[in-house]
Amino acid sequence: MEAAPLIEMREISKRFGGVQALQDVNIDLYEGEILGIVGHNGAGKSTLIKILSGACSADTGRIHIKGRKVEIRNPKDSKALGIETIYQHLALADNMNVPANVFLGREIKSRLGILDDRSMEIETKRMLERLKIKIESLKVRVHKLSGGQRQCIAISRTIYFNAKVLIMDEPTAALGLEETNRVHELMKQLKQEGVAIILISHDLHDIFKLSDRIVVLKNGVLVGIKKTNETTKDEVLAMIILGQQGVSPKMGN
Fold it and tell me: Do the Cβ atoms of 25 and 217 come closer than 8 Å?
């Protein structure tokens, strides 16, 4: 990892009515790093990524990208900074084909303002080949594709538009073993290309398999950040359950 973080989130706080969703959270993200974020429901994981993706604003705190303070007021601001988010529901248009989904909202048009389907198909094919994603026909409507293929289309869409940071929310939920492995391989490939990935998952096996570091949140508070190769699942589980480091939960026999 490089000495300077790609993204710095400092003293991030957010309240929804009487609920303190985040309180003075500090997180760094480096180029070519997969950062796992874990915690029970209500821990603050979703709120944190929504702030980075522009879906909501922090009440207090600041965000720096490559040392420069930035303002992320909406998803457009986030995308302009090279931050792309893939939510669990994927936001794909089921009744449209693969190229139409890759370019959804950012279509290629001719000088006359007409959709350039041919160019979008050529660019989509090139992107899928680069990422080693196999789809029999680009003309198929995406609702007929497997869950793993749909996830890969969502990922390829972000990479085509030069994402430097990819936020992934439960990317392998409801996928079979083979498709999960394919998504994992794609994430590792993007990491090799220098893309920074924030991975949110309830699956500690996935987190330990993919992440370089693990962030643990509980009730909106940062419990700790661990290098994956310097911790254990039991230690991280204790942090998730007890909200503190250096102790083990009492497990039944």
Answer: yes
Contact 48, 59 (CB under 8 A): no
Would you state the structure tokens that stand for residue 185, as one six-digit string? 């391989």
Long-range CB pairs of 60-64, under 8 A, 24+ apart, other chains included:
60/11, 60/12, 60/13, 61/9, 61/10, 61/11, 61/12, 61/13, 61/24, 61/25, 62/9, 62/10, 62/11, 63/7, 63/8, 63/9, 63/10, 63/12, 64/5, 64/7, 64/8, 64/10
Residue among 192, 200, 207 at smallest CA distance from 132: 192
35 in Cβ contact with 197 (< 8 Å) = yes
Mean pLDDT by 10 residues, the chain (253 residues): 83 95 97 96 94 96 96 94 84 88 89 90 90 88 88 85 90 82 90 94 93 97 96 95 67 38
Q: Which CATH number fits domain 8-91+163-242: 3.40.50.1220, 3.40.50.360, 1.50.10.10, 3.40.50.300?
A: 3.40.50.300
DSSP code at position 228: G
Q: What is the torsional sign of CA 97, 99, 105, 109?
A: negative
In this structure, is the dihedral angle defined by the CA atoms of residues 217, 207, 153 and 191, taken in order, positive or negative?
positive
